[in-house]
Amino acid sequence: MPKPPKGIAEARRKEVLEALRQIGKSAYDAIYSGQFPEISLPSRSVGNLVYDDELKQFILGDAVVKRSSRNIKHIRPYTQLLWLAFFANQLVQEERTSTLRDVFYSAQAFNMEFTDQSESDEIITDLETALMKAREDFNVYPDERSAIFGNMIIEYTKPGYEGRRQDLSTHPDGLMIGPALTTAEFIETDAEMVLAIEKGGLFTRFVEEKVHERFKALLINTAGQPPRSTRYVIRRLNQELNLPVYIFCDADPWGAHIAMVIRSGSANSAHLRELTTPSAKWLGVYASDIETYELPHDKLNELDIKRVHELLKDPRYTEKLWQDELQTFLKNKKKAEQEAFSRYGLTYIVDKYLVDKLEMAKSM
């Protein structure tokens, strides 16, 4: 199995440090020349979101916003952004990581207080937009909640753990997808596909039924809408190892959206390019599967129906499969969970449904 080129992580690290240095340098140069420091960022407003047919995701348009120390209303967010760039530079230089919550509290040590974490999260996204890089590139991560399981050996590149290897099949609950795993090298695997699974219960069932061996699959528990680090790992497995990705979610509009986020990203990440897997295939559970497999179900509520109408207008959902299934939701007014297959026995979803869906995938 081919391995990714050596030095990718170090090259990205140098690139981030240089981008952070340029932010600081622009402020210094402005002050030195007697000007008010300022920074221009691509606007993240809804009106500046553009759907790119080639990338199959939303991107930011040409509109920009300016944060200038000349404007008293801009001084607070501008200085917060400069502090965050300084803090991120420290993290990358010292090869340390921080959580979103850590950033909120760390600011207080510098008398750079945020009103609440939502404010610090917003500034973190501003810095992402300024650098056009994910927060994970400057070592800021959300809390871990997704997991991976299967026959794969990885090798850590995290300082202090370089060269250490881990077998992903040795953790029956799955290995958490954290910063160290995100940047690890893929050394050896017999996997022929990736199965991304919305619910922990089904993930556990697949582990117990040895889906990783029966179908030569790497199993990923997305824990609902997957964190960006998980979407990055899914993309890496697809891009670097040429593994097809199949997505299993609940049969409701929220499950359909989770599948689409893996394929085409989210509006909140329109400034990023390395989180999507456009070739990933949504294999269900479909609205039509509720009738086909006579699944126990609930009625769609008003919020569910509203969400279906929103998705029907979203340019990411124009393919026939998505349109047909969304219309089926509206027609039948039914939704079902992955666990509904248990009415036929605990192994039915593996022995019958998974087999059916993987066979269908060959013709998609």
How would you describe this structure to a colleague?
The chain is α/β, with parallel strands linked by helices and 364 residues long. It has 2 domains: 8-141, Winged helix-like DNA-binding domain superfamily/Winged helix DNA-binding domain (Arc Repressor Mutant, subunit A), CATH 1.10.10; 147-361, Dna Topoisomerase Vi A Subunit, Chain: A, domain 2. Helix content is 43%, strand content 17%. The protein is built from 13 helices and 17 strands. It has helices spanning 8-32, 72-94, 100-106, 117-131, 179-182, 200-208, 211-214, 228-241, 253-264, 287-292, 302-313, 320-332, 348-361; strands at residues 38-42, 49-52, 57-60, 64-68, 98-99, 140-141, 147-149, 152-155, 165-167, 175-176, 185-189, 193-197, 217-221, 245-248, 281-284, 298-299, 334-335. The strands form 6 sheets. It has a 6-stranded mixed β-sheet, sandwiched between helices. The protein is globular. The relative contact order is 0.10.
